[in-house]
Design goal:
Elements lengths: L1 H8 L7 H13 L6 H8 L3 H13 L5 E4 L4 E4 L13 H13 L9 H13 L9 H5 L14 H13 L1 E7 L8 E13 L2 E8 L4 E5 L4 E10 L8 H4 L13 E7 L1 H8 L8 E4 L5 E7 L3 H9 L4 E5 L1 H30 L2 H7 L1
Antiparallel strand pairs: 1-2, 3-4, 3-7, 4-5, 5-6, 8-10, 8-11, 9-10
Helix pairs in contact: 2-4, 3-4, 11-12
Length: about 350
Amino acid sequence: MKRVAEKTDTTPHSRPPLERMLRIHEAIQSRTFPNATTLGRALEVSSKSIHRDVAFMRDRLDLPIEYDDRRFGYCYTQEVSTFPTLQITEGELFALLVAEKAIQQYRGTNFERPLLSALKKMAASLPDTVSLHLADWDQTISFRTSAEPLLNLETFDALARAAARREQLEITYRKPGRKQAELRVVDPYHLANVNGEWYLFAFDYLRGDLRTFVPARIRSVRPTGKTFTRPAGFSVDERLRHSFGVHSAEGKFEVVLRFTPRVADYIREKRWHPSQQLRALKGGGVELRLKLSSLGEIQRWVLGWGGDAAVLQPAELAASVREAAGAILAVTAGGQHRRSTAKKQPPHHQQHRQ
């Protein structure tokens, strides 16, 4: 009998639970004392489904529903003006507005449609009247990104579908600095947005190991027709636990950095890494300690602070920062020298060079 009832509830004519409960509410409010049999017949579901709906309305939505033994039907014991489709506080509504703005970073991806659909469903369930100065709140918060990744949306969607369906892919991938793209066969395990950048974590058959790919560098995607099983122990969070970005598994490094008083407050205001330890220095500076698995990304981060950051350890990080800073200085000095030489040349010489 249980299977028959469940099958009846999933017929094409069966209404969604929320719509059924709205109809039940209207029938009870009409004071016709409907019961499970008459409601089930009208809504084309089993009596058991009606009993479940009524129990939900009474226990979860706090509607004052009782069964009248004399009238053989349901009734409200108190006046009910509207159906409480969704109870929401002002703070929760503000959180929804924040979520809607956050969706802007997913515009164009295959995440946009389901996210907007979910928000629209929640908005449709709100009471007809909400006391809120929406225009004021809309001016209160926004999301901006300084460098938006350029994505081929067809490629991105193909990667997301393959990861969800566990379908093996053949991709052509161009690494930075390479003129030619390489053909790779990969099992796409996971797509992750790390610090505003999208990355694909996939098993690379050419390398025989897990690799990280940037979707923007993928030139073409083709399913091989094969499927794969994602390893039970795979976890992006675990893989990136000791990474400063997405690079990992290169070693274990104790990183110690010293920052001047001018930028110390900026360092204190953020949690840069789960392993970080901060120590105040005399004069207002701050020392930052990290445990990392790679040095490439932390090197670029240190360079971004210019002369306000110094590497105390490890020695190889200090050396790479000095080398990179020297290269920047040489390029900058060379550019200034060329511009200075060009200014000293007579106009006719400049025209001849053009």
